[in-house]
Amino acid sequence: MTFKTTIAATFAALSFATAGFAADVTVTDSYARVSSKAAKSGAAFMMIENATGSDDRLIDARSDAAKMVQLHTHKEGENGVMQMLHVEEGFAIPAGDTHMLQRGGDHVMLMGLTKSLEHGDAIDLTLVFEKAGEVTVTVPVDLERKPDHGAMKHSH
Ligand SMILES: [Cu+2]
What we know:
The chain has one helix and ten strands; from the N terminus they run H-E-E-E-E-E-E-E-E-E-E. It is mostly beta strands and 156 residues long. It has one helix at 3-19, and strands at 25-33, 41-50, 56-62, 66-76, 82-86, 91-93, 98-101, 107-113, 122-129, 133-140. The strands form two sheets. Strands 1, 2, 4, 5, 7 and 8 form a six-stranded antiparallel sheet that branches. Strands 6-3-9-10 form a four-stranded antiparallel sheet, with no helix packed on it. The structure holds copper (II) ion. Residues 1-22 form the signal peptide.
């Protein structure tokens, strides 16, 4: 192997390691939770980073863990009560941006759980992006996670 091919091979290995599952849309720090053991629905949260160089949009999500999976957000209603809304157009994730799905904000809603989610379980979740296509992630069920989980890097 020449010096040149060694460099190329190293670079390929590095970019593979950081590329995640699809064209440079990476999903990290994911977790799912239910509010109680008897809950019929749950939610998944994560950090989605778009390093593709073009604007993208999370338009759908699928999982065997629930009968219906929707993209939701929270919004304060007229009476000051937080309500969940189905966001049919999905979440825009501009080029170079990081979009947080987090408690009290945008999230993936798992409606009609096909089995109860126990702490330590994991579910497969497929995220569908307008351009990057499908990204399947294994999401750990974490019932101990606190809503405010420390300082994340924000791009604004
Ligand atoms: Cu919801």
